[in-house]
Amino acid sequence: MQNKEANNRGKLYSCIRQVRDGDQAAFAALLSDYEPLIGAEVAHHSAELSAQDVEDLRQSALIAFYRAALNFDLSQNEVEFGLYAKICISNALVSQLRVIRRYYSEISVGDTWSHSEGGEDPATRLMEEEAAAVLFARVRALLSPFENRVWSLYVAGRPVKEIARLLQKDTHSIENAVYRIRKKLRTAFENGLRD
Question: Torsions phi, psi of 76, nearest 5?
Answer without folding.
Answer: -105, 160
